[in-house]
Write a structure and sequence with these properties.
By secondary structure, the chain is mainly β. It contains no helices and eleven strands.
Amino acid sequence: QVQLVESGGGLVQAGGSLRLSCVVSGRTFSNYAMGWFRQAPGKERDVVAAITRSGDVTFHEDSVKGRFIISRDNAKNTVYLQMDNLKPGDTAIYYCAAREASTASDWYVEPVSYSSWGQGTQVTVSS
């Protein structure tokens, strides 16, 4: 089992930027595909972005394409979510998730595909 700790959330005005970080410990980080999800009050937890274990392939949900970028640094056991041009609709709790990947090209978008989750970090975007 791995442990995940997110940081970097906060309150920002529309058009601003934040960078979320998720530090992973407990197992070999480079064996894990990673994802960022978000959950707004009263809504389901949805994928924001996902990345393969090597970082060479990424997925971004349509509403964040061109504004958010997922990346990882396997030497630092950390996955990032750079969020630019934030909008009030991005307000949510953001979670990182880990899943041991079978192959180097695997990435996952369904919450049920992930075995480990962080505690979440709140992102609030004011208009």
